[in-house]
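Thread: Newbie trying to understand structure tokens

Hi all, I'm a second-year student working on a class project, and my supervisor (Dr. K.) asked me to get a predicted structure for one chain before our next meeting. I've only ever worked with sequences, so writing a 3D structure as a token string is new to me. If someone could post the tokens and maybe explain what I'm looking at, I'd be very grateful. Here's the chain:
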Amino acid sequence: MAVHIGDVVPDFTADTTEGKIRFHDWIGDHWAILFSHPKDFTPVCTTELGTMARMKSEFDKRNTKIIGISVDPVSDHTRWAKDIEETQGAAVNYPIIGGDDLEIAKAYDMIHPNASGGGPRTANDNATVRNVFIIGPDKKLKAMLVYPMSAGRNFDEVLRLLDALQTNAKHGLATPANWKPGEDCIIPTSVTDEDAKKKYPGGFKTHKPYLRTTAHPK
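---
Reply by user tm_fold:
Sure, no problem. This is what the structure looks like when written as tokens:
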């Protein structure tokens, strides 16, 4: 079954490079980013995992845990981590899930439901296992990104999207196209002008009855 935005994400128990976890317990009262890659020892993914290692402190500032997964065993992840550190200049500083039984990939609809594990797999076999799931402290899926194998993910965009989601969760505001933290936000149409005056005492601008903006709350 597909996982939809607003759903509680599937819980699971799994081995990782930092020991066994129960996913919902591991998230705790944090936000979480689960990101997948097609296969260990592949070029694009090597750059991606190194990038996330360099950016981890930014996610930490946002009360967000990060965790990777591929359909390879933990032993492969551990060996691959040495290559990542050597080529990307950053050691992997977050857990990577061993998913060689494909159960998690199937639960999150990242791979064909009839795919079978237990044998040698190429990156092409795992072509759909390249997703980003942003999960809230309530364990609900807040956003999902899906990329092809050939294009490395833009993790600056993942961070920007996380900021937008956390702005909505904390202040009830939406964000316009290409929004960046500190820029004006959008007041949802479900909020009346009267309520907006109470919620946003700094004021707001009405561009159209359905388009009102206010400063990003500090």
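A couple of things are worth pointing out once you decode it. The first strand starts at residue 13 and ends at 16. The longest helix spans residues 43-61. Feel free to ask follow-ups in this thread.
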